[in-house]
């Protein structure tokens, strides 16, 4: 099979009916797989890993914090890709998938922020530090809120899909800009903050520093969160397709009297 | 049952608690809306097929 | 194009155009700040650049929902969309008119309000320069937001929610220039970043605004 035919096979699922049929088949397995990996990873991390010599038991927060932070940005990227697909190829499933993903991304961002704040309290001695990383996540959270609000505000489905897609594109550029700006801004403000930029909050540092004892359950949790996202997006996209169909059927009913 | 979390017990438990509440809330809301719309769609489709 | 700009300017100056509204808002915010943080002049002079930038930004935001709404209501936008003039130039002119009637007066008023807040002497030049460079970006980004929400009945609040995150980079670099200037520090890097953001926004965003406006006019 060449790449292009394989891609064509992928586009087949852009048909709402085919998408529903596919998700109907794979969703039960996905739910089970998600539950197993997520519960397994969290239980492994929570009950069966030793405390860090410096951070004590707070190191266990990593199993939630890092996967949610990873997803918070990945979800936005997925929304960017599906928005582009909608704008270029006009596949309804793509636009609806972006809509379905947004609340998941919002919750992930919120979890990353909350666990970060709770973790930061004993480690840095403050709930909130205007650290570049924290700040850019807060900005990302605002972007998610605006995106969802725009979807909710517009009646017509296709108009909403168009407008939110453009917002997602423009927003992505500005989100990257903000991230860059925020790194600049905090350095410029107080040099001392670099002491607080603990490597413990960043996934990359952790994997270099922390032994396999933490890395394996963390990988399992990453997988679990990823599966949860895929499952939720499949399920929620199905819901959005049905909502759209209900609207269309009602309109037809009214037209027929 | 619960491992000894030392002096950071409240920190770790609240982080896990808050995250689990949010995750379960997200899943529950998704499922509720999904079920509702699925039922509604079936109802309408039946009505449409009955009326022709 | 020029005719459109002239028309917008005349409408803005006429009663009800909201020309002075942004300025008055800017003044009031600045006057309220000492009431809320206390009258210590050392504190005021250290926060003055940030407060002035935030005040200008909010005053800009306040006037955005009028930017396209009036033309939308009376059908002018539909006419403009069918006119030979490309919609990209229409939104650029709209943004320019908004800047001339809102942004520029804010820039000119800022030094006066800086006196009220005890802005250190070297800060005045950089405050004006940073606002002069930054406010066009605020107008252009705001036009995009206004184009997104133009068809909505309760668009005002949504407009703020959409536009404020987009203002973050401009605010950071703009306020940084003003703050460093006030502290007598080197300002070249944030100044270049600010200019870059403004130039890129002016060059690219009108296409997004026009695309969005076309969707809304469909």
TrEMBL record, chain C:
Belongs to the CcmB/CycW/HelB family. GO terms for molecular function: heme transmembrane transporter activity. The lineage of its organism: Bacteria, Pseudomonadati, Pseudomonadota, Alphaproteobacteria, Rhodobacterales. Keywords: Cell inner membrane, Cell membrane, Cytochrome c-type biogenesis, Membrane, Transmembrane, Transmembrane helix, Transport. One of its GO terms (cellular component) is plasma membrane. The chain crosses the membrane at residues 12-37, 43-64, 96-117, 123-150, 157-175, 187-213. It comes from the Bacteria. PANTHER family: CYTOCHROME C BIOGENESIS B-RELATED, HEME EXPORTER PROTEIN B. Pfam families: CcmB. NCBIfam families: ccmB. The gene is ccmB. It is a multi-pass membrane protein. It is found in: Cell inner membrane. This is Heme exporter protein B. Required for the export of heme to the periplasm for the biogenesis of c-type cytochromes. One of its GO terms (biological process) is cytochrome complex assembly.
């Amino acid at each position: 099979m060449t790449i292009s035919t394989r891609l064509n096979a992928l586009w087949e699922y852009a048909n709402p009916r085919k998408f529903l049929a596919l998700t109907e088949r794979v969703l039960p397995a996905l739910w089970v797989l998600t539950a197993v990996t997520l519960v397994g990873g969290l239980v492994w991390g929570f009950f069966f890993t030793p405390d860090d010599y410096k951070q004590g038991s707070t190191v266990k927060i990593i199993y939630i914090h890092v996967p949610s932070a990873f997803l918070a940005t990945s979800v936005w990227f997925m929304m960017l890709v599906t928005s582009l697909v909608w704008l270029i190829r006009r596949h309804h499933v793509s636009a609806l998938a972006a809509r379905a993903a947004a609340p998941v991304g919002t919750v992930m961002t919120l979890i990353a922020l909350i666990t970060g704040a709770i973790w930061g309290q004993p480690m840095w001695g403050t709930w909130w530090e205007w650290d570049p990383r924290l700040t850019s996540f807060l900005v990302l959270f605002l972007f998610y809120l605006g995106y969802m609000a725009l979807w909710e505000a517009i009646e017509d489905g296709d108009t909403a899909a168009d407008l939110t897609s453009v917002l997602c594109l423009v927003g992505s550029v500005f989100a990257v800009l903000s991230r860059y700006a925020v790194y600049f801004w905090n350095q410029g403000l107080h040099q001392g903050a670099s002491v607080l930029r603990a490597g413990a909050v960043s996934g990359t540092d952790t994997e270099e520093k922390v032994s396999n004892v933490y890395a394996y359950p963390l990988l399992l949790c990453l997988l679990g969160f990823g599966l949860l996202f895929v499952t939720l997006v499949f399920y929620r996209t199905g819901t959005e397709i049905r909502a759209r169909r209900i609207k269309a059927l009602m309109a037809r009913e009214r037209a027929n009297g | 049952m619960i491992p000894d979390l030392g002096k950071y017990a409240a920190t770790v438990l609240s982080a896990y608690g808050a995250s689990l509440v949010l995750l379960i809330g997200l899943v529950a809301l998704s499922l509720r809306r999904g079920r509702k719309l699925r039922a509604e769609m079936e109802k309408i489709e039946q009505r449409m097929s009955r009326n022709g | 194009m020029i005719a459109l700009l002239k028309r917008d300017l005349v409408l803005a100056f006429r009663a009800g155009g909201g020309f002075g509204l942004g300025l008055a808002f800017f003044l009031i915010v600045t006057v309220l700040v000492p009431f809320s943080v206390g009258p210590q002049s050392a504190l005021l002079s250290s926060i003055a650049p940030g407060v002035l930038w935030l005040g200008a930004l909010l005053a800009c935001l306040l006037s955005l929902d009028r930017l396209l709404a009036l033309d939308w209501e009376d059908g002018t936008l539909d006419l403009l969309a069918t006119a030979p003039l490309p919609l990209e130039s229409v939104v650029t002119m709209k943004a320019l008119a908004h800047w001339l009637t809102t942004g520029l007066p804010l820039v000119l008023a800022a030094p006066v309000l800086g006196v009220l807040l005890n802005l250190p002497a070297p800060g005045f030049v950089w405050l004006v320069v940073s606002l002069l460079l930054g406010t066009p970006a605020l107008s252009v980004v705001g036009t995009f937001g206004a184009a997104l929400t133009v068809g909505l009945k309760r668009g005002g609040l949504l407009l703020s929610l959409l536009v404020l995150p987009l203002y973050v980079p401009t605010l950071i670099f703009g306020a940084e220039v003003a703050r460093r200037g006030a502290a007598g520090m080197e300002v070249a890097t944030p100044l270049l970043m600010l200019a870059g953001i403004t130039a890129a926004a002016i060059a690219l965003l009108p296409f997004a605004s026009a695309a969005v406006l076309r969707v809304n006019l469909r």
